[in-house]
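Re: beginner question about structure tokens

> Can someone show what the tokenized structure looks like for a real chain? I only ever see the sequence side.

Sure, here's an example I had lying around. Input first:
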Amino acid sequence: MTPAFMPVGTRAMLNYLNPADLEAAGSAIILGGNTYHMLCTPGMEVIEKIGGMHNFMGWPKAMLTDSGGFQVFSLSKKGSVCIIDEQGAVFKHPITGKIIHLNYQSSIQAQKIIGADIIMAFDQCTPEEGGREAALAALDRTHRWLVASKEEHVKQPHSAYGHKQALFGIIQGGSFRDLREQSTEFILQQDLDGIGIGGEVIGFDMAKTCEIIDWVRPMLPEHKVRYTMGVGLNPQDLIDVVGKGIDIFDCVAPTRNARHGTLYCGTFVEENGWLAFKGEEDNCRILIKKSQFAQDDRPIMPGCDCYTCRHFTRAYLHYLFKEGLFAYVHLACIHNIYTMQKVCERMRELITQA
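And the corresponding structure tokens:
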């Protein structure tokens, strides 16, 4: 059911949470097992031997995987680590030094072995630096690689374990409206199962993210799933993109924020038929390390019924954080993921009532 937030486990685990924690928080789909990281370690032979990523991770529900395109973008900034050409990317394994070739063919084949329910076409994430020329170059490569990715997928539309996989393409084009519209038109011509909206700016700059969605939304068919890649720094971000027609989203921020002491805290407010997440603190977050919480007997977020808020106080979490104890991160991640899923639950309620 959408809207749905996907917690991220790029290295075959979600930091400090197990599958039971995720299910208890309301997660029905995750981003599990990034193609690049899984090629590096443990390797496709291990994953295939175990029967795919669902078995490997112990995750029984839906899963989306990442093609590795974002790693092409981020690691290519280090020329000795990753070199891009028209065929794809050549990586050097960060530990063993093994050379890994990642292209449309190896990416799709790896995602067949990973066995995710939703797989992504191999793309090149558009950088914000470099201007129009860089955006156009990434766009052209993404489109060529998409056609090749689809051809590879059509040869075997099922995973290595027999279940059908949905293939999504990715709209690129940076912050240039004409390129975004051009990319959208091209993606739609491929008649894929769903549509991703990617690029460095998506999720990083929410004002620009919403503007880009507005550019392409009139072109998007109602029956195709829409996925903004990397959206979810704050609970309100989910509300903003769903209000513009987006269905699914993923982000590492909820667990990363939790790990560093940033916990979501706000209240749900219905405004003009839609939802808002509001709080007294900046971005509806509290910094648990602050001394003001040392004797605070309230839960992280009053009214929250996650496991952490039902059993523990801010004072206890402050103590755990200051002592550097592992228990803190586990409890904090439970709360932040639960909050994101609660946002989605409330949005689904409003949508079904409309």
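Each token stands for a local structural state, so reading them left to right follows the chain. The CA atoms of residues 79 and 91 lie 10 Å apart.
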